[in-house]
Amino acid sequence: MRMEAQRLWNLTSYPLRRLFLHSSSYAFRQTPRTLLIRSSSSSTTTSARNRRNPSTTSTSDRDAIRAIRLNKVEELRSKGLDPYAYEWDKTHSATQLQDIYRDLGNGEESNSENDHVSIAGRIVARRAFGKLAFLTLRDESGTIQLYCEKERLIGDQFEDLKAHVDIGDILGARGSIKRTEKGELSVCVLSFAILTKSLLPLPDKYHGLTDIDKRYRQRYVDMIANPEVADVFRKRAKVVSEIRRTMDSLGFVEVETPVLQGAAGGAEARPFVTYHNSLGRDLYLRIATELHLKRMLVGGFEKVYEIGRIFRNEGISTRHNPEFTTIEMYEAYSDYQSMMNLSEEIITRCALAINGKLTIDYQGVEICLERPWRRETMHNLVKEASGIDFNDLGNDLEVAKKTTLSTLGKDLDNKDKASIEACESVGHLLNEVFEIVVEPKLIQPTFVLDYPVEISPLAKPHRRSAGLTERFELFICGRELGNAFSELTDPIDQRGRLEDQIRQHEKKRAEAASRTSDKKEGTENEDDSYEVTLDDDFLTALEYGMPPASGMGLGIDRLVMLLTNSPSIRDVIAFPVLKVQH
């Protein structure tokens, strides 16, 4: 086996030898710097000749290292050692040891029987001086140094360590505790075992992952190389726990509703379609949890919520992923004012749980989450930002479009002008102007109230303003975080609105089909080519009677982005959807 390893070594290129000496078990030579895995890093080791171009990776170098490490696996097995262990009995985490022995003085050692510890984790750094080796072990909690002295290790384990342990391997180690003269708390290793032999090299600290796409595609490497990435997902879990704790404390019941549905309702979005072989029918991945949660209210529940994945077959951006997580909640005998209070409660509790304060930094902007948050109508915000008072324009769509284009024309690009021209009602136009002019400026928390009925088919008519609904959306940093209604409970009104929504969609769908009729078969408009179906069972449920209620959906991914200062939704989803690599 050793002869085979030597043969592979002799065949390795000189630049790779230099790299390998730097990052593998052959690196036990005098070296002044420790190879730490940190910062954004490449998922493959970069050869010495490629250091001038950090984006370059060498597949042949990686394959050669893998071949050498596979040979080490066979060497370990030939010695009766299992390179892929079943278990390891840990007594402490790295952080626990750092805390327990924080008062241990430089140069001191605790060598009593009670101070013998057992830890496990991944080796992320190493250096050696003759008969002494230092390894940095990282577990979920943090890092600690392994102090490996030849005289202390059992039998020929020091030679085994030199021959078989690489950066990236997962080790278990037992020993006593000491603090070095330089102040580094260490486990003085008496024995160790390779628990998992790593076959592929970890990113080096010099260049890192210059390919952002690769960070998302190989998130497991990203988390090894960048511990702060894993911290984001720990904070995400904490946010979800805090939301649950808040909802449960307020008497809400968590329920589960179907992911596969016969009709994709509760929002207007392109669904994912699948086929159920046994039933012989198409099913849709849910685009919202709304309609089934309302069925729960019909059935007698008064406070319900669901935290779950939503699926929409739409575009991908820094704000959008085809699958994302929301919480939707519904409370009987309340209106949308109560949902404003509840959203403030949820978000401020989460902010305190994650950051310990209500003033946070997001991408260089200070956001104040102190309550109460601003509440303003869509009409007033549009008038404030553009000077256009839609209350004075009445229902004459052409006059409203002309006024809008003459007022905003010089500030609009062609896409915005086309969107304005395509509006089918004054309500749609008001919303379009809001999205273009107002939305990007809503940096501090703002509830935008009273949306047009044309774009709010599931919301109750406003009790004081004709043509509007009791609906709000919550915006922070120019992004929608929440959407809530006083829920529509009139089954006849609801049927009429949903049928009208389907008619409007079918009109757009027909127009899209006519625009693409001269193109090759199979070309479809991404926004309008899908079919919208009526959920008759939901309408039947409403006819049995749903109590007055309010409901709200909050985007958990965007909330985590805000609280962790993450610029992209991909930063807070462990394994986001990405384009296929070619």
Question: How would you summarize this macromolecular structure in one to three sentences?
Answer:
Residues 496-523 have a biased composition (Basic and acidic residues). Belongs to the class-II aminoacyl-tRNA synthetase family. This protein is an alpha+beta fold and 582 residues long.
Describe the fold and architecture.
The chain starts with a helix and ends in an 18-residue tail after the last helix. The protein is elongated and about 90 Å long. 35% of the residues lie in helices and 21% in strands. It is of the alpha+beta class and 582 residues long. An eight-stranded mixed β-sheet has the order 7-11-12-19-18-17-16-15, with helices on both faces. Mean pLDDT is 88; it is low at 1-57 and 520-525. Residues 37-59 have a biased composition (Low complexity).
